[in-house]
From TrEMBL:
<protein>
    <submittedName>
        <fullName>Serine hydrolase domain-containing protein</fullName>
    </submittedName>
</protein>
<dbReference type="InterPro" id="IPR012338">
    <property type="entry name" value="Beta-lactam/transpept-like"/>
</dbReference>
<dbReference type="InterPro" id="IPR052907">
    <property type="entry name" value="Beta-lactamase/esterase"/>
</dbReference>
<dbReference type="InterPro" id="IPR001466">
    <property type="entry name" value="Beta-lactam-related"/>
</dbReference>
<keyword id="KW-0378">Hydrolase</keyword>
<dbReference type="Pfam" id="PF00144">
    <property type="entry name" value="Beta-lactamase"/>
</dbReference>
<feature type="domain" description="Beta-lactamase-related">
    <location>
        <begin position="23"/>
        <end position="370"/>
    </location>
</feature>
<dbReference type="GO" id="GO:0016787">
    <property type="term" value="F:hydrolase activity"/>
</dbReference>
């Protein structure tokens, strides 16, 4: 094992087998225009990569304790909370959501199951209709009430429709209903404390907010204001579902606002470190065990990784092969890990596990996308691809 030392004295970790992965990572952050980020990996539960580079703000370097908003990467974290509850018999995937959340039965949703909800088949993708104002987005109870009252899209019977913003709040409400605890408490008790890692936040504690990297650039899909663009795209047949699902009211402003850290929106406002995310996925890569302790049952891991639908997603326009709250790792390599399980986020962050090699990997960055668009880019695919190839060589 080799290590490099940062100016503040915290050593980076680069196992020699993962030197190429580290090289690709460091090549990503050459100037302030590239922002900053971190990557971490565990192989069979052993830390083999923990690196960081670049800038968390124009005049501040990224350090070992920097965290950043990771957007939909948090869906995998929220899903893991619900799977922990299912492992204790508190949730049955094949029970109606309304069995745990009675109000959810409204508008013909009485037969929608937890399994369907977790594989984006509940038909509640349209955040523009469910939460037409940012005030509703920021109010957990109001958002939950709006979701419960919402009418499901009939396209759900033909295939999944990615719940870009609504998914996290749906999962969080089910978890809260079956335990009687708020989701912030559940996140701490079911993820942070068992793993011995603090950096799992949707509602970020005030004393840790100084650690959050500034995301950039401004989220702007074109020359028109966000709200206007959303309305226009909603009228275009081929783009309508994307606008409905992803262009929530005020999202462009909330992305860079401290208000985003006051609310619990597990579909997109998660703040994590790469090391924390990679540590959580250790369990998914190693049969449910992390730090020699049972975190999830082996049977639960098997169920979590099963493909729930191979149909085309009517929001994304592709076949994501949704698992129960996750998708496979999408990597730029000749033989991608088809049995992998994880979740990527808006802008390019993401984390996943590969049970075949025992590898868990995470990449986070405050730089959203590339020079052309903020949605995503190839950083995760390149760096993650190098990591999986290193893990295969080490087998």
């Amino acid at each position: 094992m080799t290590a490099e030392t940062e100016p503040d004295g915290r050593p980076m970790c680069v196992d020699p087998r993962f030197q190429t992965t580290a090289d690709r990572f460091f090549d990503t952050f050459r100037t302030t225009a590239h922002g900053g980020g971190a990557a971490a990996a565990y192989l069979h539960g052993e830390l083999v990569l923990d690196v960081w580079a670049g800038w968390r703000a124009k005049d501040l370097r990224w350090t070992h304790d920097t965290v950043t908003m990771c957007f939909s990467t948090g869906k995998g974290v929220a899903s893991t909370v619900l799977h922990r509850l299912a492992d204790r018999g508190l949730v049955d995937y094949d029970q109606p959501v309304a069995a745990y959340w009675p109000e959810f039965a409204a508008a013909g949703k009485d037969r929608i199951t937890v399994r369907e909800l977790m594989s984006h088949r509940a038909g509640l993708h349209n955040v523009r209709a469910i939460a037409p104002t940012r005030e509703i987005l920021l109010d957990n109870d109001a958002f939950a009430n709006a979701l419960a009252a919402g009418s499901p899209d009939p396209r759900r019977f033909r295939g999944p429709g990615y719940h870009a913003v609504t998914y996290g709040n749906l999962v969080a409400e089910v978890a809260a209903r079956v335990t009687g605890k708020d989701f912030t408490t559940l996140l701490r008790e079911e993820v942070a404390e068992p793993l011995g890692v603090d950096e799992f936040w949707f509602h970020v504690p005030l004393d840790h907010r100084v650690r959050i990297a500034r995301v950039f650039p401004t989220v702007k899909p074109g020359p028109l204001p966000w709200s206007t663009t959303g309305r226009l795209l909603s009228a275009v047949p081929g783009l309508r579902a994307v606008a409905e699902a992803g262009m929530a009211a005020g999202f462009d402003e909330l992305v860079r606002s401290p208000e985003a850290h006051d609310a619990v929106m597990p579909g997109w406002n998660g703040v994590f470190s790469a090391e924390a995310l990679a540590k959580m996925y250790v369990a998914l890569a190693n049969g449910g065990v992390v730090d020699a302790k049972r975190y999830l049952s082996a049977d639960r891991i098997r169920q979590m990784a099963q493909v729930q639908t191979r149909d085309r997603d009517y929001v994304l326009g592709i076949r994501p092969n949704w698992r129960l709250g996750y998708h496979p790792a999408w990597l730029r390599i000749p033989e991608p890990p088809l049995g992998s399980i994880g979740h990527y986020g808006f802008g390019g962050s993401g984390a996943w596990a590969d049970p075949e090699t025992g590898l868990s990997f995470a990449f986070v960055s405050n730089r959203l996308g590339n020079a052309l668009q903020p949605i995503t880019d190839g950083r995760m695919s390149r760096i993650g691809g190098a990591a999986i190839e290193a893990a295969r060589r080490a087998a």
